[in-house]
Design brief:
Layout lengths: L1 H26 L23 E10 L6 E10 L2 H9 L1 H12 L4 H4 L2 H19 L4 E11 L1
Antiparallel strand pairs: 1-2, 2-3
Length: 145
């Protein structure tokens, strides 16, 4: 009788462990103990569009006693956009100068001001060109006084 109780208890334990393991693997989508990560894969690289060097701009800032000197590059959406920007380079340069000359020293001397300036240049150049060929504005040199 004692042997039968031990065997029955053993079978119940094996069944309980089997059910627990099955539930665990089914509830984790079959991943089991594998680590799950929401971080992007490490070897994925951002693909950049063509980058066009627009040039160096030196402008007086609002207030009359300060200036900004900046080298501007535009990251474009593709080769056709590169051809479009190169063909309209005087329009692009004029648009950038118009944006830069509306700024004060306080506007260009902070990180958030610099980011805002990048966004404003991108939107006004895209508007001037009639589309969205510019996907980012890059400053390779940035000096103010």
């Amino acid at each position: 009788m004692k042997k039968a109780v031990i065997v029955i208890v053993g079978l119940v334990l094996v069944a309980a462990v089997s059910a627990g393991v099955s539930y665990f693997f089914l509830s984790t989508g079959g991943k089991g103990l594998a680590k799950t990560s929401t971080a992007p894969p490490k070897n994925v690289q951002k693909v950049f569009g063509p980058i066009v060097d627009i040039g160096t701009f030196t402008v007086n800032l609002q207030g009359g006693t300060s200036f900004l000197k900046v080298d501007v590059n535009l990251e474009l959406t593709g080769k056709p956009a590169s051809t479009e920007v190169q063909g309209a380079l005087p329009v692009v340069e004029n648009t950038i100068i118009n944006v830069l000359t509306t700024k004060s020293l306080q506007d260009v001397s902070t990180t958030s001001g610099k980011q805002s300036l990048r966004q404003q240049i991108m939107s006004t150049v895209n508007q001037a060109l009639g589309g969205s060929p510019v996907q980012d504005v890059l400053f390779t040199s940035y000096m103010y006084q």
